[in-house]
Amino acid sequence: MRSSLSLNPDNFTFPFLFKSCGSLSLISLGRVLHALAATLGFVSNIFVSNSLIAFYARCSEISVAHQVFDEMLERDAISWNSLIAAYSQNYHPAGALDVFAHMMMHENPKPDRVTIVNVLPACGTLRAGRSGCEIHAYTMRHGLSEDVLVGNALIDMYAKCELMGEALSVFQNMGVKDIVSWNSIVTGLSQNGRCEEAMKLMAKMEALKIGLNVITWSAVISGYAQRGRGTEALRVFREMQVARAEPNHVTLISLLSACSSAGALLHGREIHAYITKFGWCDNLMVKNALIDTYAKCRDYEHALRLFDSVAFTERNVVTWTVMIGGYAQNGHANEALQFFSQMLTAKASPNAFTISCALIACAHLSALRIGKQIHAFVFRHRVSALLCLMGACSELHKKFLKGTEQQNLGHGGKYGRIKKKEIVEVHDIELNLWIISGQWDWATGAKLSMACFTDIFSQVIDLY
């Protein structure tokens, strides 16, 4: 640029260049431009530094973004907001809260509405309700709570922290509500098992001529499906079709989950036909959910056909786990372990719930030797790093192995004393860990494979 035009870039040029590099994820070019800006002495300019933070955040280089921030001689609200957003949007919520806490220690600049909107999702992800309440109090003291974006962020945060009373209070006291406000409260109610209240709000939206969109419908369908209320989820989908609303992949995955929980193979096939008709078969998440549905409903022919249709290089941890879990759930332990072996041969990395499903298959066969081999694999490949973070899950596997070993000595009942609620709590921890670390494939896998795990929990107890 310099040689061809014989012009030097200035502090107005670099922010545009860094923004373009961030939008296109051109990390290498951005680094070259960063070096050029440093050579020309522009990194001390606050506008250039702020654009650098945003660039590195877009490229998920959080540590470099923070380094740029630390080296700034002068910081404004945009500097702080950019760094908080960098952590929050890259699934490092603890980092976002830490930066916010440091910002609060400074007299200037004060957090503004952009700060609040960026930091509240971090509270929701961590289920840090107390921190969220403190931030809410700050917004009220400084006149920010009337802002619709702040209100929407507060509703979402409280809902994720399972504080629906506070979420409803924020919603009811909002002077101005947009479609996001309504969708946020409907989603929050649905996620917290209050689907009937969500449906009443949807009826109110229709009465007020507020258009229901795919997010509104999907939220309620997902809420019913997550609680095993497949019949209600399917009923809402039929209402959605009558309303001529087009589903997205989230809707379809939730519907398939509902069919799995209800054992509704016929409905699953109907949704499969819908998926084929409207071209969703190429979506891997939808295809994984289809495999899961057929496997849980014991239609292994269709499950295998779909599994084989996924290109070898495209199979992810979810694809393998739903097959392993589907076989293990229905007592086909040999087939489950064969798939687990194939997964390892394919050099696919199992997650904690893949391991759990494989161990359940071992329990069905009373195969202590294979169980120990899987346990050894876990430690060799550091899958156990997650289990170590989840003490309860680690103890679960220890009790499994001990219970299997002592089965012939009359102590097999130990496993039966493990409560299903404890496993669900462990699942929530793992799911949050994957979300926090940005591992969305693993998070989706945790959701699907946990469904397999809970379905066969009672069968495991029966074995002992």
TrEMBL record:
Keyword list, A-Z: Repeat
GO biological process: RNA modification
Pfam family, one: PPR
GO MF terms held by the record: RNA binding
PPR repeats (start-end): 76-111, 178-212, 213-247, 316-350
InterPro entries listed in its UniProt record: PPR_At4g14850-like_plant, PPR_rpt, TPR-like_helical_dom_sf
PROSITE patterns: PPR
Highest taxon above the source species: Eukaryota
Protein name, as recorded: Pentatricopeptide repeat-containing protein
Organism: Amborella trichopoda
